[in-house]
Amino acid sequence: MSTSLSTAAIASFDADVKHAYQDMGKLRDTTRVKTGVVGSTHRFPKLAAGLATRRVKQTDVVPMNLAHTNATATLEDWNAAEYTDVFDDAKTNISERQELAGSIAKAISRREDQLIIDALEATATTLTVGKYIGGANSNLNVAKLRRASRLLGDNGVGEDEEITYVGSYVGREGLLGETEVTSADFNTVRALVNGDINSFLGMSFKWIATRAEGGLDLTGGDRTTFAYAKSAIGHAIGIDQRMEVYYIPTKTSFLANMLFSAGSVEIDAGGVVEITCNEF
Prior knowledge:
phage-related protein like fold; 13 strands; alpha+beta
């Protein structure tokens, strides 16, 4: 059960409990989502590009014979649970159950992010931007984003496609040092004023904190980040985030638990660019 509540069990405990900051889930809407999945797997269909042929009078048309393939997402089941002792709860003027519900929901949403990140990292992509772009052993910079944008465009990702860049806050720090990002002469988003980067070069940005769930891989100072098209990553949900609270008489405690069952998969490697940033 929660071991931190006993420290709060004082008569004058402040009703406005301020939790330590917990990063929220951010990536679901950046993927191709399928809800209500029945079963342990879900197949996302993938249709290959076609090639038109010149028409010749009085001859049969030539079919393109488009290749139909599937990318399979395997669903994983997750719980985020915690007990609240009724005696400890009675000694405070707050509802620990209510506070725990928020923490539990954030834990599950971060796990959902990790499923998507794991799918991005699971398949080696041929579209890569090395850490030497924009300078030797460099952090995130405009040159890397330009290269990623070009690679996606050359690979047929349409201009109307939603593109997301997911990176670390160390990378954001490096990008905020770029004049092209922070100057109104280049970017309509006043990054230095807002303290954040919302969009640039047709990409929306999602920043992932250092997380116990794993986050973005960091090896030898090199962080693996990604720019990807929404249609390139599939996210299948069997049981969406559902909160349950039960009283357990044998423990004289409430059990708060959030259920979640989902899985992610890379549908099209041509819509994913791996960008290496050196976080020196």
